[in-house]
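Researcher: Sequence recovery benchmark, item below. Answer with residues only.
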């Protein structure tokens, strides 16, 4: 490192500090940079902790800047090191363990800490905050032994924690002091809709409750409220708010109020020392959202790099969040009073809500729930204090001034350049436009690699694609071509076409002939190609176990302790006393730790040792439930006309028929059905890949539902009168999805990509095509067999597989 360069020390290795460093690196090379972080990790996305908690991402997945990034940029990183104070006299930063590092400039970005309620019992074991990876790990450990949890606080952090704990199998109650969730971001209507949606996902609520004491001896056992009622809880998460981490500033004699006080260029009261992020107080305000910290970082970066920059004048507070798969947005004033004119639209079927508030005809605030397409446009209009007009009303609310017309699609053209597109990484529209026009970027992947946009949660990808379309115009489709993974530029359709045309037979052959950049492929493309080969040639393709995920290779779900979960078939959720007794006897014999009733109406046998799997399967003498596979998982049913006084159709019989007919077949992703005997929807058909609802005249078929992270209500495809029509259309939809779906693409995404009308055209409106699809799925079904029976029969290979460690290529 050059000795003539200024020394910049960054205290805090979080999103605010490192985002500012990224901006500085783009502007100048004048600094030697040293970063101190109290956590033993590189910079990661704190927003994504709930995904780690629920298991859909790992800690590595949420890292924003890995250790190589620090090395490549000449940054000295000290992890697991806390800074005690800044010594202004010697111009050195002093760590808690005595290290002294000289500085020319210092950036404090220490963020905030969880606020722990000062109530009796808050120091007991089993009480944690939810702020960092350490908290996340404590919650993961607690879920292994605790069954009941309470989350105190109904704000964003509390709801995210509750979602993660529910996903881990815990019984979770959110305790909130107010009557509305997220009352600082949502109005009563949006908060009520959010509460109803989260209750559907399994979260319980106790509203208007003030926690007075945490009960228990050394470990927490429950909560006592101000009204003396009690809630049992073996684990408690405090998520009642955050407080700026100002310890280092206080110790150094820097002016602190609630946060570290700064001017409009983020300068503290100590010369050469700056502050950004949640630890910072600007014009009396501390911000707890990501957009302001990125805006502060951009001003700071320009200022200390010697680039002329306008002062930071505060942020227009808006909230754009995804909570348990539900999009919410608010900006400006969102609680209506007598002084407001209210424009509102609520759709209970689509579960969407929009409210715009006017004051003397001027737009002053808005709330969106479920559909936040208009969020950028509304934020701009409210920031500009726009007067509402009939034309603008028609655009925003989907009607013309005379009651007709259609809602226009919000265009990125109207977004200001400083608008943040990627909230996880602070990437603005202007930055993305710049790399497209000046650096020749033409794909989302290129923009991700260059700017960081889309690299975290991916929620901004549609907006990035819109910006590409806007900048490149007609050239977008041809230049923005992306392959199925980084090993190839070929799309799914091109690969399938080449396999058919060239008669390719194996994954290695596909990669060799089609010019893969990585000869061995990767964990994304190998399973995809194996699936496409099997879908195209079901009778001749030899399934490649090495291209399967570990669960599919073992025909069981691997657990975190190395044991496995075995899930036998229960057709339509129906079993017999004999099968139940067999399950109980085998669970005792093979020391199965837990037998769990699943949401798909069957039983998980959790904790089977790998070497015992073949014996368990043989003694169960039941088919595999394919709980581990990209295949038909379950067909959920209600009791229907056989037993229910409201039932109009035999849902149990139809569910069992469909499950028996279509089991064992590979799909692009996991596949679930549900059959209801009447429109009361007890089997929850509206959130399944195919949902079937009985009525007096026959059946109604729904497609594309999803109850997971990206929740989606299924779309009505058609109505049929006979069971035969139902089976044929269900089979044809399945085969059409098998032939046109991208690998790992759920039907909820597939329906939105290719369109409901296209599916209707291919399956419902064209009897000849429907018949051909059905013939192809019937042919594929003739080639499959139960994998458990196959493994039992193949003693030699089974012995090798189930009595050795899984080594080598783990997908």
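Model:
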């Amino acid at each position: 490192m050059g000795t003539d360069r200024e020394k910049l020390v960054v205290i805090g290795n979080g999103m605010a500090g490192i985002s500012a460093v990224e901006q500085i690196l783009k502007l100048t090379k004048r600094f030697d940079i040293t970063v101190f972080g109290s956590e033993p990790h590189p910079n990661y996305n704190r927003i994504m902790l709930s995904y780690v908690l629920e298991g859909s991402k790992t800690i590595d997945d949420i890292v924003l800047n890995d250790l190589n990034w620090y090395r490549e940029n000449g940054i000295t990183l000290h992890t697991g090191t806390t800074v005690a104070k800044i010594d202004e006299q010697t111009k050195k930063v002093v760590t808690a363990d005595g290290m002294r590092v000289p500085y020319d400039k210092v950036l404090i970005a220490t963020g905030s800490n969880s606020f722990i309620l000062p109530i009796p019992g808050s120091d007991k074991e089993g009480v944690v905050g939810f702020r960092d990876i350490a908290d996340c790990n404590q919650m993961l450990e607690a879920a292994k032994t605790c069954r009941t949890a309470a989350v105190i606080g109904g704000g964003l952090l509390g709801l995210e924690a509750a979602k993660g704990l529910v996903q881990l199998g815990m019984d979770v109650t959110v305790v909130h002091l107010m009557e509305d969730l997220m009352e600082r971001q949502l109005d009563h209507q949006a908060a009520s809709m959010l509460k109803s949606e989260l209750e559907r996902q399994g979260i319980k609520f106790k509203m208007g409750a003030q926690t007075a004491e945490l009960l228990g001896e050394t470990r927490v056992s429950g909560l006592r409220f101000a009204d003396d009622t009690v809630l049992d809880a073996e684990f408690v998460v405090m998520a009642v708010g955050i407080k700026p981490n100002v310890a280092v500033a206080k110790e150094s004699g820097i002016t602190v109020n609630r946060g570290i006080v700064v001017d409009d260029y983020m300068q503290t009261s100590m010369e050469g020392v700056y502050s950004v992020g949640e630890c910072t107080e600007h014009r009396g305000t501390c911000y707890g959202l990501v957009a302001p910290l990125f805006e502060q970082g951009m001003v700071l970066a320009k200022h200390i790099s010697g680039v002329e920059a306008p002062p930071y004048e505060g942020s227009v507070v808006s909230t754009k969040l995804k909570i348990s798969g539900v999009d919410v947005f608010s900006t400006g004033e969102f609680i209506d009073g007598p002084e407001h004119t209210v424009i509102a639209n609520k759709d209970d079927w689509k579960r969407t809500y929009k409210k715009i508030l006017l004051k003397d005809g001027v737009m002053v605030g808005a709330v969106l729930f479920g559909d936040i397409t208009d969020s950028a446009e509304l934020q701009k209009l409210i920031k500009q204090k726009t007067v509402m007009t009939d034309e603008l009303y028609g655009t925003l609310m989907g009607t013309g001034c005379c009651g007709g017309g259609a809602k226009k699609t919000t265009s990125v053209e109207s977004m200001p350049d400083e608008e943040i597109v990627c909230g996880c990484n602070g990437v603005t529209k202007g930055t993305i436009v710049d790399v497209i026009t000046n650096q020749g970027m033409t794909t989302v992947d290129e923009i991700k690699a260059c700017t960081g946009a889309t690299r975290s949660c991916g929620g901004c990808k549609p907006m990035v694609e819109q910006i590409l379309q806007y900048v490149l115009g007609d050239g977008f489709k041809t230049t923005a071509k992306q392959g199925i993974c980084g090993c190839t530029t070929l799309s799914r359709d091109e690969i399938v076409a080449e396999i058919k045309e060239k008669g390719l037979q194996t994954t290695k052959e596909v990669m060799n002939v089609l010019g893969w950049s990585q000869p061995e492929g990767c964990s994304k493309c190998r399973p995809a190609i194996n699936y496409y080969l099997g879908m195209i040639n079901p009778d001749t393709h030899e399934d490649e176990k090495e291209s399967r995920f570990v669960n599919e290779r073992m025909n069981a779900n691997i657990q975190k302790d190395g044991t496995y979960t075995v899930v036998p078939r229960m057709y339509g959720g129906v079993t017999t006393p004999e099968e139940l007794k067999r399950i109980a006897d085998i669970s005792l014999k093979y020391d199965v730790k837990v037998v769990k009733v699943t949401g798909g109406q069957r039983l998980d046998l959790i904790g089977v040792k790998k070497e015992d799997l073949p014996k368990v399967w043989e003694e169960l003498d039941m088919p595999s439930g394919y709980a581990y596979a990209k295949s038909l998982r379950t067909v959920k049913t209600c009791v229907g006309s056989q037993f229910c006084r409201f039932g109009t159709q035999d849902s149990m019989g139809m569910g069992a028929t469909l499950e028996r007919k279509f089991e064992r077949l590979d799909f692009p992703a996991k596949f679930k059905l549900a059959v209801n005997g009447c429109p009361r929807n007890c089997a929850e058909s509206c959130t399944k890949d195919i949902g079937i609802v009985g009525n007096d005249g026959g059946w109604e078929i729904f497609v594309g539902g999803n109850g997971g992270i990206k929740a989606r209500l299924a779309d009505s495809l058609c109505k049929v009168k006979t069971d035969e029509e139902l089976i044929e259309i269900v089979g044809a939809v399945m085969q059409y999805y098998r032939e046109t779906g991208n690998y790992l693409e759920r039907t909820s995404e597939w329906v939105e990509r290719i369109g409901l009308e296209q599916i209707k055209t291919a399956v419902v409106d064209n009897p000849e095509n429907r018949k051909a699809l059905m013939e192809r799925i019937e042919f594929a079904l003739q080639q499959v067999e139960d994998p458990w029976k196959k493994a039992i029969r193949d003693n030699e290979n089974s012995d090798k597989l189930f009595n050795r460690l899984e080594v080598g290529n783990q997908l």
